[in-house]
Specification:
single chain, alpha/beta, six-stranded mixed beta sheet, Zinc Finger, Delta Prime, domain 3, 3 domains, Rossmann fold, 8% strand, 20 helices, 47% helix, Helicase, Ruva Protein, domain 3, two-stranded parallel ribbon
């Protein structure tokens, strides 16, 4: 069988496998957390226990149990369970696996296809699964850390159920660690944790169960093993040595994500470059998509700076291109330059306020006709529309002329500030017209 596709049978986990692999839950009862997604009475748990699972997309942050749930399905189902590499698989590979599933189906056996990181499949690869998923030649179990409503084809989503997993809370992480310390598959009771060491592991995990177990294993490796009768102590120092880089808790699609980006935007709007750099660093350290950060800088450049400094939008756009082309780690400098520029620029929300006011008028006001002399001239009878004054025919390239429809006056929407380039343009236009 192609190495990209592996049919999963009962497998023994090697004793030297990573702790997170050895402690992978074997049943739903062993799964820590995710009570809403697969607790008693949930659709997913019922479907797994009755072996009637239909196609499902498991969506959630890293270390929340997506792969564990897929493995539980593999252990409990009577169907063939096939795991697919979303990185190296091609359309022809998928078609070959679908053909194998059709053969199993003719022999009365279902196929469950597990695709980890399904968002890495391109549109053609996802499309190649549509027919097989629709007629249940195979049951798709997809796992992704990215929002499937953005990353997975709508047609494939409509044939699947999305189940969202949540970051593990502190109690869940502490329970995982306790289980790993005591279980014979884990550390066999040979270690115990100081209270401050447990607290440190919980904070370092940031809701990621895999990260918690990895940190525990690394810390245990720095301490001579004890026995169940006299377990060795893992203290906070060992945890710190095992994790020299303290990653601040951050998730890319939950409350922390929105809170940090909100603080970042408000710091740019509030003209505080130090706060801007701190919140930017939090996002970079948390692995936030640099293009997402750059998009927010671009929005702020128009929303909060606007024409007080039109250069801000150009710099923000350049930062976005840099993030797109260069990526981490170098693009952190481009993002910092653009963000601090926006923070230090004079501020005006006249553009945002103006377009919102105009949209409100369009949506809720009366229908206002285009003045005849502004209408398009490429039609019969347009000679009756009246005179349009071409501004370049007049001194200064400007002439007094009404452009708004009747019932609206100049200043109804755009009200420039007295800051930066906007203030200069107000003074300049006033002088030009006088």
């Amino acid at each position: 069988m192609d190495t990209l596709f592996t049919e999963i049978e009962d497998e023994d986990v090697a004793p030297d496998a990573p702790l997170a692999v050895r402690m992978r839950p074997r049943t739903l009862d062993e799964l820590v957390g995710q009570h809403e997604a697969c607790g008693p009475g949930s659709w997913l748990r019922t479907a797994i226990e009755r072996d009637v699972l239909t196609s499902v997309i498991l969506f959630g942050p890293a270390g929340t149990g997506k792969t564990s749930i897929a493995r539980i399905v593999a252990e409990s189902t009577k169907a063939a369970f096939v795991e697919v590499s979303a990185i190296g698989g091609t359309v022809s590979d998928l078609r070959r696996e679908i053909k194998a599933a059709e053969e199993r189906r003719r022999m009365g056996r279902r196929t469950i296809l597990f695709v980890d990181e399904i968002h890495r499949f391109n549109r053609a690869q996802q499309d190649s699964l549509l027919h097989a998923v629709e007629n249940r030649t195979l049951v798709l179990v997809g796992a992704t850390t990215e929002n499937p409503y953005f990353e997975v084809n709508t047609a494939l989503l409509s044939r699947s159920r999305v189940v969202e997993l949540q970051s593990l809370d502190d109690d869940d992480i502490a329970k995982l660690i306790g289980n790993a310390l005591a279980d014979d598959r884990g550390l066999r009771g040979a270690y115990r944790l100081a209270d401050d060491a447990l607290d440190a592991l919980v904070v370092l995990a940031g809701g990621d169960g895999r990260a918690a177990l990895t940190s525990l294993e690394l810390a245990a490796g720095l301490v001579d093993a004890g026995t169940r009768d006299e377990p060795a102590l893992i203290n906070q120092q060992a945890v710190g040595l095992a994790n020299p880089h303290r990653g601040m808790p951050y998730d890319k699609n939950k409350d922390m994500h929105y809170d940090v980006i909100s603080a970042f935007i408000k710091s740019m709007r509030g003209s505080d470059p130090d706060a801007v750099l701190y919140w930017l660093a939090r996002m970079i350290d948390g692995g936030e998509d640099p293009k997402f950060i750059a998009r927010r800088i671009m929005i702020c450049a128009s929303e909060d700076v606007g024409n007080a400094d039109p250069q801000a939008l150009l710099i923000a756009a350049a930062a976005f291109k840099s993030a797109e082309v260069i990526g981490y780690p170098e693009c952190r400098i481009n993002l910092a330059q653009a963000a601090t520029y926006v923070a230090l620029a004079p501020k005006s929300n006249a553009c945002e306020a103006g377009i919102d006011a105009a949209l409100a008028e369009v949506r809720h006001g009366p229908l206002r006709p285009v003045p005849n002399y502004l209408r398009d001239r490429h039609r019969p009878g347009s000679e009756e529309y009246g005179e349009y004054k071409y501004p370049h025919d007049y001194p200064g390239g400007w002439v007094e002329q009404r452009y708004l429809p009747e019932g609206l006056e100049r200043g109804a929407f755009y009200r420039p500030s007295d800051r930066g380039w906007e203030a200069y343009r107000i003074d300049s236009c006033s002088r030009d017209r006088s």
